[in-house]
Structures are given as structure tokens and as C-alpha cells.
Amino acid sequence: MHISSVVRSAAMALTVLALVSTVSACGGGDSTAGSAGAGNIDKAALIDKMKEKPESKDIPASTMDCMVGALMKYGDQATLQGIIDGKVNVDNDFKAFGAKEKQVQEEVNKCL
Predict the structure, then answer these.
(1) What CA–CA distances, in Å, run from 48 to 57, 63, 106?
(2) Using CB atoms within 10 A of its CB, is residue 6 exposed (0-12), middle (13-18) or buried (19+)?
(3) pTM here?
(4) CA-CA-CA-CA torsion sign (99, 104, 105, 106)
(5) If 0-12 CB within 10 Å is exposed, 13-18 middle and 19+ buried, where does residue 68 land?
(6) Which of 20, 47, 80, 95 fits as disulfide partner to 75, beta carbons 3.0 to 4.6 Å?
(7) Dmax of the chain from CA atoms?
(8) Which residues belong to the signal peptide in this entry (predicted)?
(9) pLDDT tens digits, the chain, 112 residues: what are they?
């Protein structure tokens, strides 16, 4: 019985290692932006900044995560860092995203 526990533990460890390697090779998890070149902007920091706004207090976490995901998908590092630093305001519009303004608006609306 003891040997089967060791084999099972080893198999689980190898599975976890394979999954972690796969995720790492694909570019990581949700804390980094995708194809827009947002570099190493921290998704959690962006969510925290958005939650600071009084109008955000009633937004469910899943909706906020979706909305920030849309911002990260289309935003470049400078724009996203500007939001975190409080230099870029996206309350009323998404003009800071330039030509991608319409796409950001559409994706954010899908989250709501």
C-alpha cells in the first residue's frame, strides 16, 4: 500500500510540473497582458486602481476582471501604467486607447 502512495504522489508531482511548464511557455497567467504589448503590467494592480473609484464599489469581481481583461487586451504598457498611476482616466470614454477605442468599448460592454 505504501508504494502506491509514493507512485501516486510522484505522478501528481509530474502532472503539476508539466502544467506549470505549459503555462509558462504560453506566456503566463492573467497578471500579464496579451498581444497588445502591455508588457508586465500587473492585472491585480489595475483591478485595485479601478476599484478605488466610488462608482466601482457595486461591480462584481468577475465583471471587474472581465473589464480589466479588455483594457489589458487592447492597451499598451504606457496607457495601462497611466491608469494605475492615475494619469489616464477611462471613466467616461476610452480615447486613451486611440484607434482601439471602439473595440475596448465593445468588449467592456460585453462584460456588463
Answers:
(1) 11, 13, 22
(2) exposed
(3) 0.63
(4) positive
(5) buried
(6) 80
(7) 64
(8) 1-25
(9) 455 443 344 334 333 333 332 232 333 343 333 434 456 889 999 999 999 988 888 899 999 999 999 999 999 999 999 999 999 988 767 889 999 999 999 999 999 8
